[in-house]
Amino acid sequence: MESDTLDNPTIGPKQILKAAACVGFLGAGASSAARMMAILCAPHVDDRDVASVIKKEPAICARVLRVANSTYYGQARVISSLERALPVLGQDAVRGIAAAACMCQAVTSRPPGDLLDIKALLWHSLATASAAESLARIRHESLAAEAFIVGLLHNLGVVIQRQLDGPGIDAMIRARQMDESCEIRALESQYAAIGHEECIALILDAWQLPEALVAAVRHHHDPMAAPVAHRDLAGLVNLGAQLAVSSGCTFALEPVYGRCSARVLAHLELSADDVDGVALELPERAARLGNALSAA
């Protein structure tokens, strides 16, 4: 992972990791869903390991099978077990579904009066994951699974921000309400004690996830600043997030209108027609995935 040096001298890695433990992402108090997500996102796991870890959590297993049988995948036959889902859908798809189910279970609802709508954040993350995966399949098929998972996780740092600096996050949300054109990094620089990208990158590093995932999450707002080897993945997530916003899957700290970077499109060798095709299908795909996960 890159240097742990953070912009704000008063909040460092220890404080971030402590906050992550408080919300159940790390440590002895980590929820089973958070622990499972770390395992599912790790490289070099076989089908047996994937099935074994999912089966230990009946609620997550039920969600996986629900999504596997939903219109999101459009399977003609009923998938009645994980063993059946793995060869039919593939390990990457099953891992992605399980990771999405884990995220939905691990991130709790907002308390009354909280300006940060966690449900909206989750729906934005699901839409970003779906869009990033679809974009990857056009020119970067080998990155599709990673694009889905990074899309899921890219804004999880906002939950840690909320734990570390509630007043700062509220100030950011109010500023965004006053001027919807405000860029998130400018708001963080002015109001927040720490950036959301730094928060989630440190957590994923603590989960011992691959460097590619950590770098892509860290640079999802500026993918061309990522290490060269990881720019494609960061770019796919960046574009996925913009399409999610454009489809209406947004939340208080994302812009109202998503704009795809011409530079990122060129780097990924994606055309306007490629993006338009994904954008056209995204609202329905995101709704299918979200509804299947929430119904399970």
Word description of this protein:
The protein is an all-alpha fold and 296 residues long. The protein is built from 16 helices and no strands. The two termini are 36 Å apart.
Instruction: State the helical fraction.
Output: 55-70%
Q: Give the amount of beta strand, in percent.
A: under 5%
DSSP summary: helix tally? 16
Number of domain units = 1
Distance between the termini: 36 Å
Under CATH, the topology is which? Hypothetical protein af1432
Q: Main β-sheet: number of strands, strand sense, barrel status? A: none
Spell the H/E element sequence.
HHHHHHHHHHHHHHHH
Number of strands: 0
The helix/strand class is mainly alpha
Could you list the spans in which at least 5 consecutive residues all have pLDDT below 50? 1-9
- What's the multimeric state? single chain
Q: How would you describe the shape? A: globular
Average pLDDT confidence is: 85
The level-1 CATH class: Mainly Alpha
Please identify, by name, the CATH architecture.
Orthogonal Bundle
Cα gyration radius (Å): 18 Å
CATH H level: which superfamily? Hypothetical protein af1432
